[in-house]
Amino acid sequence: MTTKGTRRHFKPEFKKDAVALVSEQGYSIPTAAEAVGITANNLRRWIKELKLEESGVRLDAGERAELDRLRRENKQLRMEKEILKKASAFFAKEMK
């Protein structure tokens, strides 16, 4: 019987520090991955993700949170606008 493994989550600071081992300190990807206790594939993916974030192609966590907040706010404002439109049409009929 095998046990189901749990997925580990890493903080953004940890990811940036691991990527810095390769990009700033010259470690090889396998060596850096072993030093911080992750797989080389994880580290390769983090390097790719960080490059995309820095180039502006991909949103970082703060930008993603702000985008989500703005989308919720936009949805709320659209609903309020629809309600006001219906209410003004209703009262316009009442005034005639």
Automatic annotation (TrEMBL):
InterPro entries for this protein: Homeodomain-like_sf, RD_transcriptional_regulator, Transposase_8
Coiled coil location: 60-87
Keyword field: Coiled coil
Pfam families attached to this UniProt entry: HTH_Tnp_1
UniProt family annotation: Belongs to the transposase 8 family.
Protein name per Swiss-Prot or TrEMBL: Transposase
